[in-house]
Amino acid sequence: MLASIPVRPVSLQRYADFLEEEELAEIQRLAAQLRGAKVIHINTTAFGTRVADMIGVMGGLMLDLGIDCRWQVLRVTSELVSIFQRIYDASQDSNITWDAESASTWLEYSAQQASRFDGEYDYVIVHDPQTVPLLNQITASRGMRPGGAWLWHCHLDLGQANPEIRRFLASHASAYDAVLAEMESYLYGEDLPNPQVILPAIDPLNPRNADLSPDTVPALLASLGLSSDQPLISQISNLEPAVDPMGAIAAWRLARQQVPNLQMIMAFPGILFGSATHSLFHQVVREIQADADIRVLSPLDGVGNLEVNLLRQASSAVLQRSIGKGFGLVVAEAMWKSKPVVAGRCGGIPLQIVEGETGYLVDTVETCAERLAFLAQNPDLAREMGSRGREMVRSRFLITRYLRDYLSSLLSL
Fold first, then answer.
1. What is the pLDDT of residues 150-203, one digit of tens each?
2. Is 330 helix (H, G, I), strand (E, B) or coil?
3. CATH code of the region 3-201+399-412
4. Fewer CB near the last or first residue (10 Å), C or N of the chain?
């Protein structure tokens, strides 16, 4: 069998404070129609990714609501890591080559995994490109299609994927009963079965997002050599070229010309040392080493979920200088901490920010700097925008809404 990951019940009542009564009742009404149904999620990793986090929490909520939810992961060998990286790269960039040999290795691996799949389920949800051949391979090995409704949930934007891998994915996705995606553009215009959009979400009870006492903020800033009496902006995201860290530094320097006491923190909770991001990290460190009012933090500095939470809470405004693809859910996380966000107009960020109400969408470093300076100079307005942002996240981007959409999707099949 595939590797089973324990799913522990998570009480929906723990989220009652974040829900209107009718929202709570709607989730319970939908779940009642699925009570006793056998549901299984299949992906490639049990921890360390946003997808794994959402499966764990949503699966626990399903259990609490009487749905028999399980979770299994494919057994990934070391030689498959490079293939999976190639799949990811080619899925994100049309200039990355994709060859028949890699496709053949991928299919051989999928066939091995298919032979380990057992059990009968009412609903099977497989996540991301690495898993998509699974249904066809199980069908081929058994000589018949397995029972239940099968859904493929693609969490990547495949709009710019290599055409060869796009056709490969579409040929296998066509076997499913439905294809789920985080944005309509992720579905890349292919003739996919029963396409549905489910916006991603954050868990308000995760240590990264939970409400914390502000009393610890001054001590945290003091430990970094920064002041709690001066305005602070932060950019907190995994380090990669798509978050444009050099552009973020440039924007802060321009904003500081209007707000001389403006401080900045750049925190990178995730850095893949030994990859291209290693050199990017050192480039960032060299760039800011002469500046006294900016700090760069990495996992080596102990930056985990709790530290990320506190750093956002300490911020006057949050910056997300994204220039690449992806949904950019770090924007919703910042808004949940009642902070206005200045962010790039790309990916899923425009779905999260209401221009001028919860933050600002910007295209250039210069405009970014102007908005940051404006928020630093108008703290009352920044707090009002932050409050509106938190309410927007509460209504649109919490894990309970994600659960409700998933229940509706399953019932539609």
1. 999 999 888 778 888 888 888 999 999 999 999 888 876 667 899 999 999 999
2. helix
3. 3.40.50.2000
4. N
- Token readout for 208 is 């990264």
340-377 CB burial, b ≥16 within 10 A, e <16: bbbbbebbbbebbbbeeebbbbbeebebbbbbbbbbbe
Q: What is the DSSP string of 138-189?
A: HHHHHTSPPSSEEEEEE-S--TT--HHHHHHHHHHHTTSSEEEESSGGGGTT
- Per-domain residue ranges for the chain? 3-201+399-412, 214-396
C-alpha pair distances (Å), 387 with each of 35, 205, 340, 382: 37, 18, 8, 9
Which tens digits make up the pLDDT trace of 233-280? 999 998 888 899 999 999 999 999 999 999 999 999 876 655 667 788
Relative orientation angle of helices 379-396 and 365-377, to the nearest 10 degrees: 110
- Domain 214-396: give its CATH architecture: 3-Layer(aba) Sandwich (3.40)
Radius of gyration in angstroms for the set of CA atoms belonging to the chain, rounded to a whole number: 22
- Fold agreement (3-201+399-412, 214-396): yes
C-beta separation of 335 from 389 below 8 A: yes
